[in-house]
Structure formats: C-alpha cells, structure tokens
Design brief:
Blueprint: E1 4-8, E2 15-19, E3 27-30, E4 37-40, H1 47-74
Antiparallel strand pairs: 1-2, 3-4
The protein binds zinc ion.
Zinc ion binds near residues 9, 11, 33 and 36.
Length: about 100
C-alpha cells in the first residue's frame, strides 16, 4: 500500500516524498534540496502543494479503508444470544390451619 506522496518543491522543483499521514493542513517541512520551508495547506496558492495534499488525502482514505476491512474481519465474532431465563416459580405459602 502506497503511503508516501510525491511533493514538488515550489522553488527548486526538486521532487521528494513524504508520508501521506503527515501531509495535512498546517504541516510544514523543509525541501531536502534547497531547504526552503514548504507549508502544506489545502487552500494553498501553490498548485504543487495542492496536488500533494489531494494525493495525500486519497492515500489516507485508501489506507483507512484497507485497515477498516481487516479490522472488521478480525471483529467478526458471531453474536451470542443469552437464552431467556423465565423466573416462573411462584411458591404459594399458605398454611392451612384447621
Ligand atoms: Zn527546493
């Protein structure tokens, strides 16, 4: 499963990869090539950043879905129904004095 996303530096156009889980609004990191700090925001004016955010979002969704499927499989334990216990033993305690 692909969990890293390609990011293209705005300044030097160097392409590097970062984890999809990190690439969320408010995240920032340095370009490994020119060391400019890139700010990741889905409303960024930079189309490179925008595309990376979109790709990361899709990758996270796919990761979540694949995790969800395996989690559901593991939790697929058949429900057991606890049988009814009818408490229908009413004792009549009448003393018959003659
Ligand atoms: Zn750069």
């Amino acid at each position: 499963m692909e969990d890293s996303v390609q990011v293209r530096c705005t300044r030097c156009k160097n392409v590097f990869r970062d984890r999809a889980k990190r690439l969320q609004n408010g995240y920032s990191r340095q370009c490994p090539s020119c060391e400019i700090v890139l700010f990741f925001d889905e409303d960024s004016h930079d189309s490179n950043i925008k595309r990376a955010m979109r790709t990361a979002r899709r990758a996270r969704k796919e990761l979540r879905e694949s995790e969800g499927i395996s989690a559901r499989k593991a939790a697929a334990v058949p429900r057991q129904y606890g049988g009814r216990s009818a408490a229908n033993a009413r004792g009549t305690d009448e003393a018959d004095d003659d």
